[in-house]
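Lab notebook, design round three. We kept the backbone fixed and only want residue identities now. Task for the bench partner: fill in a sequence for the structure below.
Input structure tokens:
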């Protein structure tokens, strides 16, 4: 292993994210609960998943198919830890990595609707009295630019050593968030804000700190009280799931360097892969069925959905979160695509697909949402593989394609 490659892997793991571009009071309002497709239980996907797991030699996977807020199918297959006998269950937690960024963006949208924040609010306005030595180059950077990774924040690999030192400092996640953004914002932007896309999970750490400043509560408390509880998400947590020394939850597995090697909760690599202070950038963990509740919120909330229902947010907020300017592919934690199979064939339909993807080198997850046809497929894997040639990525693509072929439009 080269030193440079080692730093690359650690910096990817540290921020818990995927860098690939290809692939009223909110607490008082809730979205329709997920239900099965009819009076019967959802179809079991275990038979579909098992041969794919064996074919690509990944430890385990989980998948869900949604039609609106109805669960058409769900299932799991494989083991929690390679070489062990404990099987994955539908109630097991998976790390979402960058799949959690859309949750932070959703919290920001709630703050906008309440009038506590605006998409065009600037760092100069927000932090002028909170960060000493704020470089003037950040004064005009907006919340929207942070959510779109067009803020001027350097790529996470450029912040490797500061992030490592923060992980091992004896301070709270909030204090660590303030420390890293104070360091970043004391220097000039790495590039002209708004001029280009540079993936940086620290963008979302800054948004998390903004929300903490607005509400006077930790990001962890905000996401639980204002998003998870209204949606009925009860398994949500932060960081790598499970108890150190036990196999009571899935373990993450290397996707590079030592492919397939397990790394358990409490280990050095597990701690580096999902540091608590980086939560707004994607350290949420939960069951795939709970993640499906969040996915269903955005699937139903999109204005292009023929069965549109505004849960937690108004239609214009979902539109802002799901649609970017022409020629761009990323908006507020979502990767934006167009596919013929997703076209609802109504006036204005273009086959838009909204994708959530996460990979930190040890865990992998993807969701494809097609609001024009009110349909979504979701998959998680307890092995990393951000690049297209890695087994976890290949297996996930095969699962998603198989689910689309089996349950999608004909």
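Proposed sequence:
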């Amino acid at each position: 292993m080269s030193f440079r490659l080692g730093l690359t892997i650690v910096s990817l793991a540290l921020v818990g994210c995927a860098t690939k571009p290809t692939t009223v009071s909110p607490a008082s309002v809730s979205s329709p609960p997920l239900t099965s497709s009819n009076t019967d239980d959802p179809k079991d996907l275990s038979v579909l998943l098992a041969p794919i797991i064996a074919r690509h030699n990944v430890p385990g996977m989980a998948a869900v198919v949604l039609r609106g807020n109805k669960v058409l199918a769900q299932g799991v297959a494989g083991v929690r830890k390679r070489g062990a006998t404990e099987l994955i269950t539908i109630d097991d937690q998976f790390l979402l990595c960058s799949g959690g960024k859309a949750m932070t963006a959703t919290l920001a949208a709630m703050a906008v609707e309440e009038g506590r924040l605006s998409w065009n609010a600037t760092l100069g306005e927000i932090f002028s009295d909170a960060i000493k030595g704020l470089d003037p180059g950040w004064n005009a950077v907006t919340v929207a630019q942070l959510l779109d990774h067009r803020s001027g924040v350097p790529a996470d690999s450029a912040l490797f050593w500061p992030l490592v030192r923060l992980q091992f400092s004896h301070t709270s996640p909030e204090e660590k968030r303030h420390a890293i953004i104070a360091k970043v914002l004391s220097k000039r932007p790495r590039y002209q804000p708004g001029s280009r896309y540079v993936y940086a999970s620290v963008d979302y750490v800054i948004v998390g700190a903004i929300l903490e400043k607005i509400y006077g509560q930790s990001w962890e408390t905000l996401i639980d009280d204002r998003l998870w509880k209204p949606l009925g998400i009860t398994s949500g947590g932060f960081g790598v799931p499970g108890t150190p020394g036990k196999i009571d939850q899935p373990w993450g597995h290397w996707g590079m360097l030592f492919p397939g090697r397990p790394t358990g909760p409490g280990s050095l690599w597990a701690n580096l892969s999902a540091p608590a202070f980086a939560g707004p950038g994607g350290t949420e963990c939960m069951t795939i069925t709970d993640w499906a509740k969040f996915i269903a919120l955005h699937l139903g909330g999109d204005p292009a959905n023929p069965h549109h229902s505004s849960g937690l947010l108004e239609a214009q907020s979902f539109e802002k979160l799901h649609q970017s300017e022409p020629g761009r592919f990323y908006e507020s934690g979502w990767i934006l695509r167009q596919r013929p199979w997703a076209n609802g064939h109504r006036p204005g339909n273009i086959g838009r697909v909204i994708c959530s993807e996460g990979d930190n080198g040890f865990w992998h997850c993807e969701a494809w949402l097609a609001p024009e046809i009110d349909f979504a497929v979701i998959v998680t894997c307890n092995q990393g593989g951000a690049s297209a040639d890695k087994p976890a990525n290949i297996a996930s693509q095969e699962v998603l394609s198989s689910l689309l072929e089996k349950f999608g439009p004909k």
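Keep this in mind before ordering anything: The longest helix spans residues 391-407.
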